[in-house]
Every structure is written in C-alpha cells, then in structure tokens.
C-alpha cells in the first residue's frame, strides 16, 4: 500500500481511507483522531473522537461534555479499520500527542501535530517514534528562529520585576498550555508569592492542578488593587477594558514570535518573552536527523525553508498545504 493510500490531505484535513478517520479535522467528521486540545486542532461536532484522556478532558472543558457523540481514550495500540494507531507524547501542551498510523502492508506514518523538544514542566516530554514518513509542522521553519532557553527568559522577567517593583507585570499567554507553562517556569525561577490570573484561565489552571501540576498560589485578577506583581492573562484581554484597572503596567507577551521585534512593537509589548511550545529551526532539524525517515511531509507553517533543507540533504519531502491551522491559537 502506497503512502498516499494510507494518509492524504482533504478539504476536511488529513484523511486515512483504510481507517476511515481524519486527524485534527477542521470541520465535523464521522471519526476524528485529535493530537491536542488547541482550538485549531480540536473542534467540536465530530461523531466520535479518539484522543488522550487529558485532551478529551480539555475538549470537555472548552466545548462542553457533549462535544462529540462518542469518545474513546487512546491507550496502547488501537485497531481502527485496517490500520493500527498509537499515541505518543509530543511535548507541546498537556495531553498533546503524536499519532502513529501503521497499516498491515505499507509505510508507518507518524503525524506529530504540534510538538516541542525543550523540557516543559506542564506536560510529558516529546518521544521520538521511529517511522517511515514523518509529518512535521514548520511553524518556525526558518533558520532565523533559534529560541532561547525559557529559563533565560524567566531571568529577564525577574530582572524587570526587580527593576520596577511598583509596576504590575501583565504577561500575555495563551489560555491553554502557555499560561500554565509560564506560571510553572516562574515558580521554578523562584517566584513564590501569589500570581494573579485572568478569569479566562481559571478552569484550565484548575485542571492542570488536578492533574498534579504544582502552579503555586493563584489569585483572581479581578480586584481593583490586585495584590500580585505578576499577572497572567490571555492576549485578548489586552484589547479589553480589563487592562485599564492596572496602573502603569509592564506589558509582556510569551511567544516564539516575540523573537520578531516588529511583532512585539505591533502589540505594544515592552517585555517580549521568547517562550514557544513549538520546535524552532534547530529542533526540527534535530528531530528529522534523529528519526531518519524515508520521507518528510510538512503540514503548516513556513514550508519552503524546510523543503529546501530536505532537498539539500537528499530527503524526499512534500508540503501538504493544509488550511485552517494557526501558528499559536487563542
């Protein structure tokens, strides 16, 4: 069986005919396998959903308990139609997984979803999965993207808090994954006091805590005089009246895109923190070299740079040109 017969792009997303399922479909389908809970990968309305237990929980938190007609927890090797699938940690956010698709007769394909190779205190680390075809993202798929150690960015945050002790530090971080990671990194860096969070983060932070992730003392950022110097909020809050309650705040944003200074300026960010839950250029190259697949497929992001690198290294590659995926969704 040829690779294109096992998995190929459609208008609804990646489709596996022998298993009759889609992976991270962008519209409702009868059967969906979901890599993780971000809104550009996990949508409501499918007939059935197969995902990790944590991703299913997160989808229920975000979309309600009736987000799909049927739900199945991914555990071990699972037979779906005429293929076997298995889920492996992706290191992206809590519950994130790569999906390995193994037909009875044909190449093994691993769909990585979104993934990261740096240690992340709020999720399981990336697990390299040997395969014939590796399907990779290329969100930061250009040689210019070399993300610093997140611990270094925490040193910058602490230095700013020490330099401006009277100014609240408002850090924008996406509600699922990034917010909890920034909080956990701040704790590792030595911030022991209360951290204030926007109400939109409360349920997902509570779920991380219930999963055994220590986020320390969190207080709501609702009072007129919030008794915390560090405040975490979703980026959308910075365009709302909510931000006006803080006097002379230091505005920060945690994202891999903060390496691009023009983006920081456009957002009015005074303290850009380059913290990404995606692989940067060295990490994606490291991963491909480590796995040594016979072929690389590229799902979304900056495809041309990675395509050229594969060509120079004699690795067959193809862009899938899937639509409907954002770089870092809110």
Break the fold down into its secondary structure elements and pairings.
Elements: H1 3-6, E1 8-10, E2 13-16, E3 21-23, E4 31-33, E5 46-51, H2 53-63, E6 68-73, E7 78-80, E8 83-89, E9 97-103, E10 109-111, E11 133-138, H3 150-163, E12 169-172, H4 178-188, E13 195-197, H5 202-210, E14 218-220, E15 230-233, E16 250-254, H6 261-266, E17 271-273, H7 281-291, E18 295-301, H8 303-312, E19 317-319
Parallel strand pairs: 3-4, 4-5, 5-6, 10-11, 11-18, 12-15, 12-16, 13-14, 13-15, 16-17, 18-19
Antiparallel strand pairs: 1-2, 2-3, 7-8, 8-9, 9-10
Outline:
Helices cover 23% and strands 25% of the residues. The protein is of the alpha/beta class and 330 residues long. It is globular.
Explain the overall architecture.
By secondary structure, this protein is of the alpha/beta class. The chain has helices at residues 3-6, 53-63, 150-163, 178-188, 202-210, 261-266, 281-291, 303-312; strands spanning 8-10, 13-16, 21-23, 31-33, 46-51, 68-73, 78-80, 83-89, 97-103, 109-111, 133-138, 169-172, 195-197, 218-220, 230-233, 250-254, 271-273, 295-301, 317-319. The chain is built from eight helices and 19 strands. The strands form three sheets. It has a seven-stranded mixed sheet, covered by helices on one side. A six-stranded mixed sheet has the order 1-2-3-4-5-6. Strands 14-13-15-12-16-17 form a six-stranded parallel sheet, with helices on one face. The model has no long low-confidence stretch (mean pLDDT 94).
């Amino acid at each position: 069986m040829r690779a294109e017969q096992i998995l190929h792009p459609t208008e609804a997303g990646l489709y596996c005919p022998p298993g009759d399922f889609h992976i991270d479909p962008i519209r409702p389908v009868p059967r969906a396998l979901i890599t993780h809970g971000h809104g550009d990968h996990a949508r409501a309305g499918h007939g059935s959903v197969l995902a990790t237990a944590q991703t299913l929980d997160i989808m229920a938190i975000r979309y309600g308990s009736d987000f799909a007609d049927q739900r199945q927890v991914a555990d071990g090797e699972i037979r779906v139609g005429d293929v076997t699938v298995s889920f492996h940690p992706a290191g992206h956010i809590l519950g994130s997984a790569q999906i390995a698709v193994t037909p009875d007769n044909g190449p093994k394909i691993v769909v990585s979803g979104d993934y990261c190779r740096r240690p992340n205190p709020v999720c399981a680390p990336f697990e390299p999965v040997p395969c014939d075809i590796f399907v990779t993202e290329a969100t930061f798929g250009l040689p210019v993207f070399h993300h610093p150690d997140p611990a270094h960015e925490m040193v910058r945050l602490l230095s700013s808090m020490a330099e401006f002790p009277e100014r609240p530090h408002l850090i924008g971080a996406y509600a699922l994954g990034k917010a909890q990671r920034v909080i956990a990194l701040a704790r590792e860096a030595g911030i022991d006091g209360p951290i204030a969070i926007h109400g939109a983060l409360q349920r997902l932070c509570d779920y991380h805590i219930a999963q055994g992730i220590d986020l320390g003392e969190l207080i709501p950022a609702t009072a007129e005089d919030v008794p915390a110097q560090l405040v975490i909020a979703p980026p959308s809050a910075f365009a709302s009246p909510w931000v006006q309650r803080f006097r002379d705040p230091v505005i920060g944003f945690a994202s891999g895109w903060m390496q691009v200074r023009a983006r920081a300026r456009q957002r009015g960010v005074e303290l850009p923190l380059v913290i990404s839950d995606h692989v940067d250029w060295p990490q994606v190259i490291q991963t491909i070299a480590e796995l040594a697949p016979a072929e690389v497929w590229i799902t979304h992001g900056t495809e041309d740079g990675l395509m050229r690198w594969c060509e120079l290294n004699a690795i067959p590659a193809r862009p899938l040109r899937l639509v409907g995926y954002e770089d870092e969704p809110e």
